[in-house]
Amino acid sequence: MAYWLMKSNPKFFSIKDLERLGTEGWDGVRNYRARNFMRDDMRVGDKVIFYHSSAKPSGVAGIMTVSNAGLPDPTQFHPEHRHYDPIATEEAPRWYMVEVTFEQAFIDVLPLSELKFLPALEDSLLLKKGCEQLTIIPLETKHWHAIMDMADVLDLLPDDVETYLD
Question: pLDDT (tens digit, 9 = 90+) per residue, 47-62?
Fold first, then answer.
């Protein structure tokens, strides 16, 4: 199992939206590095931190799991869709997605301003200069546990989240 952080602007799609839907495709990503993560590296069962970006505050909002991986993103094939790619074909897709399933919403967002103080995250892409625009970030096990531990200390985790702290 691998760990990831995926960003979404909550104005467009939030952890509450995912909670309501249960499972949803993480589509519309048009960054080659993120595309490669979804196409080549993400696997069913991987744990994912749902991060609210461009929000006040930006930060960790909950947990989800990859439930289907390496799927061609259907939005690239529809001319009326804002993520349409005229070069992509069903025989040779350019863009990929994963499906994610809701696991937990935090009681409050764990803000980036708090995450910056975690020594375990100092080598994470989340805090690295120049990586602010990455929508998908691989996390090391130590990064995952540091974030979960901080959320627990700040009392942001619901009582039934203990399994994620092990």
Answer: 999 999 999 999 999 9
